[in-house]
Design brief:
Blueprint: E1 2-7, H1 13-37, H2 42-54, H3 57-82, H4 90-107, H5 117-143, H6 147-167, E2 192-194, E3 197-198, H7 200-217, H8 219-229, H9 231-236, H10 241-268, H11 279-289, H12 294-317, H13 322-344, E4 345-350
Antiparallel strand pairs: 1-4, 2-3
Helix pairs in contact: 1-13, 2-3, 2-12, 3-7, 3-10, 3-11, 3-12, 4-5, 4-6, 4-10, 4-11, 5-6, 5-10, 7-8, 7-12, 11-12, 12-13
Length: 364
């Protein structure tokens, strides 16, 4: 016998709803066992995490701040994965968006009308992310270069470029030794909605609505879905796969670039360390756990952000080491990610029979 992993032909709506719920319950149980084995009361720990992430208005606001880049990069990764383009480069695309937005804020904002600064920052971030994503897209579409490798390698280039700029030519000489650019002018700060929650939340919701409409209600969305489900059928009916790869990656990179622009303009108000902290990689988990659903991305991003904020809080409230917070987050995430994968794939046991001997004494 052998075990075969195969994609499900169809997944019922009830299964799509129940599997994430069951996975979450199982993840809580698994996390509780891990905490108990470590000598920590799991229910007290979970309560502290929930209070730290959702216990009051301020906590919810901080969770939303952490969720915004996960929402935008998660949407970008999800639309690329829809047509089987493995975009592992959201981290680099976010970084390039942050660089472009910082460039506008530092060198252009004081020379143009104040009302035009934020739109230009948003546009610059999206264009920079899109152009950075277009490079591996063109290499895959027209030269057949593996996009997993190129997108991953380009992350390192972008992240190091960010570091070079705020340590080097863009560093604020009056920063008293702190690496980072000068603070952006006020006209380059994203408007706040609540507490530290900025306009990026609106961008994420609007982007999810547009993405859902494109994928479910347009011919282009149909082409993307068909290409992802059956590339051979897509070629047979005349879909230009190379063209769609480039277009999808332009959208994917633009969303990740927008996340970078929102981070530097809405949270940091400067280019500094802390922009590239793994949002683009976590976006891959967000995309898979949401089953590549635009509205699901927003929900899963909020849940993961709550885990991140709650994990930080238990270090302060319970005196647990930082490593314990990471262990808890991993214990909760792995079962949930596994459940999301098994919603799309299944394990099947295939029986293999031994070859029977032939009449001449050989094997048939």
């Amino acid at each position: 016998m052998r075990i075969v992993i195969e994609k499900r032909e169809t997944v019922s709506r009830s299964a799509r709803m129940l599997i994430p719920i069951i996975s979450f319950i199982f993840s809580l149980a698994f996390g509780a066992v891990m905490l108990a084995l470590s000598g920590v009361n799991p229910w007290v720990t979970f309560a502290a995490m929930a209070k730290g992430a959702l216990g009051n208005g301020y906590a919810v606001g901080e969770t939303l701040v952490k969720a915004i880049p996960l929402m935008l990069t998660g949407l970008g990764v999800a639309i690329a994965f829809r047509m089987l383009f493995w975009n592992i480069g959201a981290e680099g695309q976010l970084a390039m968006g942050g660089i472009a937005a910082a460039g506008v804020a530092l060198f252009i904002a004081d020379r143009i009308p104040s009302w035009s600064v934020i739109p230009l920052i948003v546009l610059a971030g999206m264009v920079a992310g899109a152009l950075w994503a277009a490079i591996p897209a063109a290499l895959r579409a027209y030269l057949g270069v593996n996009e997993t490798i190129t997108t991953l390698m380009m992350n390192y280039v972008a992240v190091l470029w960010v570091s070079y700029l705020y340590h080097g030519p863009w560093r604020d000489p009056a920063g008293y030794g702190f690496p980072g650019t000068a603070q952006f002018p006020r006209s380059a700060w994203l408007p706040l909605l609540y507490g530290r929650v900025h306009l990026g939340l609106v961008f994420a919701v609007v982007a999810a609505a547009i993405m859902w409409f494109l994928l479910q209600r347009t011919k282009w969305g149909f082409e993307i879905r068909i290409t992802g489900e059956n590339p051979q059928a897509a070629r047979y009916i005349g879909i230009d796969i190379a063209r769609n790869i480039v277009l999808v990656m332009l959208v994917s990179g633009a969303l990740s670039g927008l996340a970078g622009a929102c981070e530097v303009s809405g949270v940091m108000h400067r280019l500094q360390q802390g922009l590239t902290v793994g949002y683009g990689y976590t976006a891959i988990i967000v995309a898979w756990m949401s089953q590549l659903n635009a509205w699901g991305v927003l929900l899963v991003a909020f849940v993961l952000a709550a885990l991140l904020v709650g994990g930080d809080q238990i270090q302060l409230a319970m005196g647990l080491p930082a490593a314990m917070a990471l262990v808890i987050q991993g214990a909760l995430l792995f079962p949930m990610l596994g459940g999301a994968l098994f919603a799309e794939y299944r394990l099947r046991i295939v029986r293999t029979s031994k070859l029977a001997p032939s009449a001449e004494g050989g094997e048939s």
